[in-house]
Design brief:
Elements: H1 3-26, H2 29-57, H3 65-70
Helix pairs in contact: 1-2
């Protein structure tokens, strides 16, 4: 997972939380619900990226095994 993908997902999460907060403050339940959805989507993307990183950690290519074998 690249830095920019991670940042993009975190921004989506934080922006959703802000949108939810503003919706609650204004009494706008639609805005609050949309913000909650964005925040949860951002959290899910972050968790998905972390799971992918963990899955690839055990892969032989993760630490350059393939490169060493070809040399």
């Amino acid at each position: 997972m690249g830095f920019f993908e991670e940042a993009k997902h975190k921004i989506e999460e934080v922006a959703g939380k802000v949108e939810e907060f503003i919706g609650d403050a204004r009494g706008d339940s639609a805005m609050s619900a949309a913000g909650n959805a964005h925040a949860e989507h951002g959290e899910a993307l972050i968790e998905q990226d972390e799971q992918r990183a963990d899955d690839h950690k055990d892969h032989p290519d993760a630490d350059g095994e393939r490169e060493r074998a070809e040399s």
